[in-house]
Amino acid sequence: MHHRLRAAVSRIASLLGFLIVSSALVAPSAHAAERKRAPVKKAAPSSTASTKKTADTRRVAVTLRASERGTKGRTRVAVQPAERIAKVSAAPRAALIPAKLSFGQMAGLHEVTDPLDLKSSVALVIDQDTHEVLLSKNDHAVLPIASLTKLMTGLIISQAKLPMDEPITITQDDVDTEKGSRSRLSVGTTLTRGEMLHLALMSSENRAAHALGRTYPGGLATFVSLMNAKARAIGMADTRYVEPTGLSSQNQSSARDLATLVNVAHGDPVLRELSTSPSYEVAVGRKTLQYNNTNGLVKNPTWDIGLQKTGYISEAGRCLVMQAEVAGRKLIMVFLDSAGKFSRLGDAERVRNWVESAAAFGAPRLTAHKGNNG
């Protein structure tokens, strides 16, 4: 009896062991199949990661299109496709070339503030009759003067009494190799001396100004010597010229000296007429070229301008000198190293408004001072 009972128990234990082993072998494959059938759920990105990705996309888009300006001066930002952004991000970054600083900026002259909030780092306003200084700002600073140079060029030509109907031809020597500036007066163009002088003073034509100096009796070297001699003779102690156009940054002066030059040049009727001419046409072969004054204020009927000259190279910034009548006073205005394209004209308007207000209500003389925060 006991023998049969033990045999039955043994068979049952063997059967249970077989079932356990079989289950263990089948379970892994069944779980694997279940995992294969089940869809894989992607984890939703966190709000922090999503915000960072959006911010990165916007930064790239701004980098791509920040240079585009709208008609009202606002920056247009165009969001680029993701593929485009990825390509730009992967591409090597181009080296950023900083804007060339003017001599005035390098010297820290823009840190000097003034009551009129002028954008020019150098300014001087003088009553032409009484010599009273109405406004001064860094007026002794010696800086490049760009095409204000042409005012002295015109003065030498006018006072030399050379024949204004004498033909002058543009040559390769007159082509700008200093700044690479363009000109509509191609090599071989022939105009009269009077026409060349008109274009040099009114529209700041560089090849015309250079041709005037090159064809002067004795040549260019003699002409530049006469420019410097004239500067010394009229008391321009801070002034130096090396060529007649102003393309060289070595042509330098101060606001004080330039006010002296404007006063002398205003006494020449030829310079008064040509520098304030709104526009001028010249015949070049079968074409007629239309030139306009570089100073938009001469076309403004609210201004009474007797003489003017503008100038610009990167080393000098935007420059302007004028003789104008404001509120019954003849004023000489000098603005050097202005920071924006139209800010020199804006500075002239600020000065005029202030002088007119002073005439009505009275105002003290203005002198710039070093600002606490630049």
Task: Describe the 3D structure.
The chain has 374 residues and is an alpha+beta fold. The chain has one domain (103-370): DD-peptidase/beta-lactamase superfamily (Beta-lactamase), CATH 3.40.710.10. 40% of the residues lie in helices and 19% in strands. It has 11 helices and 14 strands. The protein has helices spanning 2-37, 47-65, 82-90, 103-106, 149-160, 193-202, 206-214, 220-233, 255-266, 269-275, 343-361; strands spanning 112-113, 120-127, 133-137, 143-144, 167-169, 190-192, 252-253, 279-284, 287-292, 305-313, 317-326, 329-338, 366-367, 369-370. Strands 10-11-12-2-3-13 form a 6-stranded mixed sheet, sandwiched between helices. A two-stranded antiparallel sheet has the order 1-14. A two-stranded antiparallel sheet has the order 4-7. A hairpin with a 2-residue loop joins strand 11 (317-326) and strand 12. The protein is globular. It starts with a helix and ends with a strand. Mean pLDDT is 81; it is low at 18-92.
Helix content: 40-55%
In the CATH scheme, what's the topology name?
A: Beta-lactamase
Based on CA atoms alone, the radius of gyration comes out at 38 Å
- Pairing-aware structural class of the strands and helices? alpha+beta
**Tally of discrete structural domains:** 1
Q: Largest sheet at a glance?
A: 6 strands, mixed
CATH architecture: 3-Layer(aba) Sandwich
- End-to-end distance: 115 Å
Number of strands: 14
Number of helical segments?
A: 11
CATH structural class: Alpha Beta
Mean pLDDT: 81
- What sort of overall outline do the alpha carbons produce when their principal axes are compared? globular
CATH superfamily: DD-peptidase/beta-lactamase superfamily
Strand content: 15-25%
Identify the strand order in the major beta sheet.
10-11-12-2-3-13
Query: Order of helices and strands, N to C?
Result: HHHHEEEEHEEHHHEHHEEEEEHEE
Residue stretches low in confidence (pLDDT < 50, at least 5 long) are 18-92
